[in-house]
Amino acid sequence: MTGDQKVSEPFAFKKYRAAINTELRAVLDDRQSPLYDMMRYHLGWVDEQGNPIEASPGKALRPTLCLLACEAVGGAWYKALPAAAGMELLHNFSLIHDDVQDDDRERRHRPTVWSIWGKPQAINAGDALATIAGLALIGLAQRGVPAVKQLLTTRLMYEACLTTIEGQYLDISYESRFDVVVGDYLEMIESKTAILIARSLEMGALLGSDDEDVIGGLYRFGRNLGLAFQVRDDILGIWGDEKKTGKPWGSDIRHRKKSLPIAYALEKAKGKARRELVDIYQEEAISDEGVRAVVGILDDVAARGYAHGLAIGYRDAAVEELNGISLFPWPRRQLSEIARFIVERDS
Length: 347
Known about the structure:
The model has no long low-confidence stretch (mean pLDDT 94). This protein is 71% helix and 1% strand. Helix 10 packs parallel to helix 17. The protein has a single domain, classed as Orthogonal Bundle (Farnesyl Diphosphate Synthase), CATH 1.10.600.10.
């Protein structure tokens, strides 16, 4: 299968969507300040004036994986809903702050929070969303989850939050460096992206089982899945259709992101080509012509093929982890389908 062939979204995304949405809305229902309307706007529930709409809320990958992991180990998936909601809110906190730090004016085909309300208020909205993510976990007690597991789930979520911020620090620091190699990039995305996916699965498994081998196996599955997810994201960030991705053309390059294709090119490009890549990335503002020149250099070193191959490798490693643990059949198949979907998606 080629990297551009479309695959269908696995059924698990539909199965849990309504329950996830209900849980998320319940967390915010009683909070009526305009601060919370910014969060509702970001989540796709309201427009700029606070009027109800149905905009794209994203894939809900992390909460879906959390619930699927719980069901896969034989647990009652609805008991993990507070954890699933918490991880989705935590993820969206990171997106609001990412948009501020990257000066991105558009996400999911809509203006970003900061581009409407300003960066100071967007930071407030992101901070509040991270706090509410923790409050969402209170619902675990109402679903009869033992106190020890409540505490451990909270610890896992906030450790993941801190690791994500560490990864974002690396991502920003790489923007001004030209000694970044593929190994540095992989360290960064393991912290920034893979951890939330891995912890979502680990938390779901923890809430459905006491088997440490199975819980650990699903965490490792999630780590590899998260790495594959980010590598695919990097491919789409350069070669994807902006109408599908919701990101402006060339935005990763304009922000001087050391995504995988760029890190690979910095290693493989020689002489004039490497100097041109560095010169463009040192420009105050990268023009359309500069973006096209960078893409040409990436094509010359076959960066897209390398990245796709790496994503496939991580996907296969993820599926191998699944094969080594005992799971219920339907959730296992869905996890495998999600792994396939991750590396073939076009948005």
